[in-house]
Design a protein that fits this description.
2 copies of one chain form a homodimer. Chain A is of the alpha/beta class. Chain A has 2 domains: 130 residues, Isopropylmalate Dehydrogenase, CATH 3.40.718; 153 residues, Isopropylmalate Dehydrogenase, CATH 3.40.718.10. Chain A has 14 helices and 11 strands. The C terminus of chain A is likely disordered. Chains A and B meet through helix 6, helix 9, helix 10, helix 11 and helix 12 of A and helix 6, helix 9, helix 10, helix 11 and helix 12 of B.
Chain lengths: 339, 339
């Protein structure tokens, strides 16, 4: 059968099938070469498929299982005890090449561990990384690692840079993506040891390495790819979410201050609409677990239907561009220095 | 002579005396027990003092010097070659107890190095830290270290926590400030080694330690004090600035989209005014170099008059509350475990 096949962990995330199923159907409608396997509890999924057209129905199937990895499950539990979970079965389908990619809004730690166990990393990659696309003032940036690894060594960061560069190249069509290394700007204390050694490796890497990028430079669009350790990257990502939510809350509070501001808020409706569109986390939902032999996309756990659909689209795009095979082919050519 | 005496490095920052002098005079006007020493080029400072009232004039003096630490000066240059710089002389005045505190908008790395060299740290503190106050959804938070140290060891982070707790207690009047440790939330990979060891020290510290706080939790107001390594803290701080600027830019772009949104933007004026007030970095200007035997406050280099005045007020408040002596007295009582 031709076309693209994607498995969806229908049970993952805060809302389970009532978000994942309608979102999956929405992407199925817009892409006629797509087939989906919804993995999870049939008694919850099937009612949500009632009444869909025969054309759609022919391209969606359900793989039934009742076991679920919860948000609170320890990684060890997900890995060793829940071998029939919707998450695990979706990843198994990627491994068996029954599908080309899978998408889950489940527990990030479990998804990373199970994906790594089932799919393994490429021969030239020591550790997979989490890559997300974030908005900038002038477009967007691919940032990795956002939390898969802490205490990364310089050669791991080099590998992240190599993978990020390939992804920016194939997804955005940029010939030589600008790769930056996240760092702080104070002269005396520029970077820690990890950063200084990584900087040397990147200078010798053949990538279009532009040097250090600071926290504010990320959002100014100074680079197409920003590389960092997962600890720092996750702090930066969560900080971004926190500040954006705080500002949105402040705008709401200002609008509700008195009748004058309430009227002003109503009249400013077109501005809010545009801002909401620009800052909508759903537009950027779908982080990629890169470095594995297959495509796994992580949706935000609290994603709504529109956001989860976006994560499915990310998976489809990576299948179309053949991302894992490209990473495998390119990194196989490179000499990866042991730092 | 009674009252509070503060030295101002009048030459520091992007704008020098034309910001630092009017800002200093503004604070002098609102606080009649304050005396100021403006350190810098008399030929640039004196014209800005022309025409002030005799009452004000009696409380301000100029310490003349033409040497200046520039934003691009290497720390070694500032420390060894510029011994007559306005920054150095201001810090010397603190050391000589001629003044109670000093304020500078100059080069952060140089300010930290010179302050540390001249003033030294408290006996029980290994390294000074940079503490800033940031807005949250429900108030504000004191965060440290924001860039003085990279590769901090757990016992350094413990000391930062102890200092931060004292500052939140005396500046905010909170009896037992909630102290959080900045960390990431993924189960499998919760924290790096530095964080895990610091967590153990903090649990045994006698502080009101509430455990881990994530990047978004900082802005939700989960803690009164958030502790982190300077590398991570500086990335988080710059990320915060970057996101806030990006959102402000997006609002402007939405307002300028067409005539309808332009009109809406004009009508929403009271909302912008309130938002600007809430997000104004000037309201939070003035980071403290804590752990030294004297008070040194760092203003943002690009501070305007209102912002720089705020940094001077931070210095005054720390003098009033006797912060360094309190830190010295309290930490002298504590057993600081060698981790």
């Amino acid at each position: 059968m031709t076309g693209i096949a994607v498995a969806v962990d229908a049970m993952g995330g805060d809302f389970g099938p009532r978000v994942t199923v309608p979102a999956s159907l929405a992407v199925l409608r817009e892409n006629t070469s797509l087939r989906l396997t919804l993995v999870g509890d049939e008694s919850l999924i099937s009612p949500l498929l009632a009444g869909i057209s025969p054309g759609l129905s022919a391209r969606v199937q359900v793989l039934h299982t009742t076991e679920v990895v919860t948000m609170d499950d320890k990684v060890a539990v997900a890995l060793r005890q829940k071998k029939q979970s919707s998450m695990r079965l979706a990843i198994n389908l990627v491994h068996a090449k029954t599908v080309d990619a899978c998408v889950s809004a489940g527990n990030t730690g479990a998804l990373m561990a199970v994906s790594r166990f089932v799919l393994k990393t490429h021969a030239d990659i020591d550790r997979p990384a989490i890559l997300a696309t974030l908005p900038t003032m002038i477009g967007h940036v691919h940032m990795l690692d956002l939390g898969a690894n802490v205490d990364s060594e310089p050669r791991h960061l080099l590998q992240f840079a190599q993978m990020g560069s390939i992804i920016a190249e194939v997804l955005d069509g940029i010939e030589r993506p600008r790769v930056g290394l996240l760092n702080i700007g104070e002269e005396e204390i520029k970077g820690n040891e990890q950063i200084k050694q990584t900087d040397e490796l990147l200078r010798a890497s053949g990538l279009n390495y532009i040097g250090y990028v600071e926290g504010d430079g990320v959002f100014k669009g100074h680079a197409d790819v920003v590389v960092c350790d997962g600890f720092v990257g996750n702090i930066a990502l969560k900080t971004t979410e926190g500040v954006a939510k705080m500002m949105a809350g402040m705008i709401k509070a200002e609008v509700n201050r008195n009748w004058l501001t309430k009227v002003a808020g109503l009249l400013a409706f077109p501005i809010w609409k545009g801002l909401k569109h620009n800052m909508d986390p759903g537009r950027y939902n779908g982080a990629s677990l890169v470095g594995l032999t297959g495509i796994v996309v992580k949706s935000h756990g609290s994603a709504d239907i529109a956001s989860f659909a976006q994560a499915v689209r990310v998976a489809v795009k990576e299948v179309e561009k053949n991302v894992p095979a490209l990473i495998h082919a390119r990194l196989g050519q490179n000499e990866v220095p042991a730092a």
